Amino acid sequence: MEILSLLADGFAIALTPQNLLLAVIGCFLGTLMGALPGLGPANGVAILIPIAFSLGLGPTASLILLVSVYYGAMYGGRISSILLNIPGDEPAMMTCLDGYPMAKQGKAGEALSLSGVASFVGAFVATCGLVVLAPQLVKIALLFGPAEYFVLFTVAFATLGGISSTNQAKSAFAAALGLGIAMIGSDSQTGSQRFTFDHVHLYDGIDFLIAIVGLFALSEVFIFLEHHRGGAVGSAGATKVGRIMPDFSMIKRCIPSMARGTGLGFFSGVLPGAGASLGSFLAYSLEKQAVDRDGKTFGKGDPRGVAAPEAGNNAASGGALVPMLALGVPGSGTTAVLLAVLLQLNITPGPLLFSKSPDIVWGLIASLFLANFILLAMNIPLVGIFTRVLMVPTRILMPIVAMISFVGIYSITGSTFDVMLMVGFGIAGWVLRKLDVSLVPVILGILLGNQMEVNLRRAMTISDGDWFILVGSPLAIILWLVAIAGFVLPMLMGRRMKKRMEAARDQEEFVGD
Amino acid sequence: MSDRIFGGFGLALAIFYIWAASTIKDSFMVDVVGPRAFPYIVGSIVALCSLYFILRPDDEPEWPHMREFGEIVFAAAVMFAYSWALPEVGFLISTVFATAYLTWRLGTQPLWSLVTGVCTSVGIYVVFHLILGLALAKGPLGF
């Protein structure tokens, strides 16, 4: 019952007029960004972080704005999947399979409203799961010492490549690259200058926001330039929506699919290295196994094939917040960006956050519930507005995205050097994506590098230089085993998973989920 | 081949990184591990992965043709020039040209690109500076 009273306090914070307004704005922007191919949740939140800070919003207010964007983008991804057969973001790719055929049959409006309801169910249940599970995980996390934390970070990096990763060396390289960048600047323990080469701009290290915006947002602009994809993603004919109100008998028929999708999605969200893409993939394939074994209706516009992956995708995005908030270790690109939000606000997520600043945690959770209701209201009647945005050509849209990235970084740093550094990260991001090196571990390395090192050094100080402290407790040994399994399993089955996921969708390039 | 070059580059980076780590000076404060140990570990991982890329390269990625490649290089150059120009000529003017260049290269007619550039620049200025109060780059003309 303690949880309920904490949650009530959270709602008191989230329901102030200013925060409510921010949640509405965030949901709107998020859905917009999710709907546009090329601007996923990670990019969307990344571009808005510097802006939210330059506005001088308080920690809770900025968090409410940015998590609303996060949830909104997860809702928005389905719009272009259904209407255009182009996933708005990676997790939405499974929605194309049955959503687009439905749209072709003239049932686009029904598919949109059904997937809106499915998103709501998935996200709502996952947020409830977050409320229940996160405090339990915190109790475990309180047993962690520095050595266990160090191993936990290793688990995060080892599993980040995910089950569908084909080349684990590239994931490891990306993580090490990020960790290496994090080392630049003065050492937090002794104050020695590291890798600064007496360059004054580097004394404070490289701001992770510069790296995130460059790697995620600018590299996307380069990809668009390379492919000359300047046209509008939608054309007037393709975006006919038709009847918008949901068909209640259809929704009723899909309830079991949503329930299964939600459960699977939530668990793949919580597990390290799975994330929303795998959540929606599992939800779709298992749904197909469960109700349509002969492949008669799935892939041809079965509403259950829309409901299950959408519920799974949104449930996973809620589930992914559990390890991020309770342990401070994100499991996906987007939650890594949310971690950046917290770090920028000087909030270190983890068990202490729950006891030291419950107002932030519960205000955040309450605003997630709120964002869900706002999004449901926004997505069913207003879906027409978002479909119209798809008709803005990307040749106008992408430069605006680039300029807003510049504005954001310039307004927080005010330095030409940092802006140029961002362009440099953009180019590096483009090259790495070409070479099939995931950018998410780079970001996570930059974000967690210093904490990882501090925990290692604290553990060593406790053990007086004995490296065996890293395997000195049963908990640490279990974590090592998880890390090794997470790193080795994809080598054995990564190619197969990747092939199955790729067979299911058209080839598109996206930044993680 | 791309992966081999990438591996070679990674290896060079790792060697440089480890060398740079070895030059880190101790300060008056010391702890058991010191400031060099973790960078050594990170550098070694980079080196090991790079060796793997050299020995077991992936399939060749689809590199763009010269033309598209030039596109990227020019866009990057424009962005660097834009970063440099921001404090020199101010946000409004530099953004007009940077946006116009990018929309032009993405396929807008030249004249319309300029119009888009002006609209984007003024739009961002109004929304982010005048309404939201963000600090944008000020040139000699004050905007």
Description:
The complex is a heterodimer of chains A (513) and B (143). Chain A has one domain. Chain A has 21 helices and two strands. Chain A has helices at residues 2-14, 17-35, 41-54, 59-84, 93-104, 108-141, 146-160, 168-182, 208-227, 248-270, 275-291, 304-319, 321-327, 333-344, 351-356, 358-379, 383-389, 394-413, 416-434, 440-463, 474-503, and strands spanning 185-186, 193-194. Chain A has a two-stranded antiparallel sheet with strand order 1-2. In chain A, β1 (185-186) and β2 (193-194) form a beta hairpin. In chain A, α3 (41-54) crosses α18, α6 (108-141) runs parallel beside α10 (248-270) and α10 packs across α11 (275-291). The longest helix of chain A is centred in the N-terminal third of the chain and has 34 residues, at 108-141. By secondary structure, chain B is mostly helical. Chain B folds into two domains: 2-55; 66-131, no CATH class. Chain B is built from five helices and no strands. Chain B has helices at 2-22, 37-55, 66-89, 91-105, 110-131. Chain B starts with a helix and ends in a 12-residue tail after the last helix. The interface between A and B is large, with 68 and 69 residues.
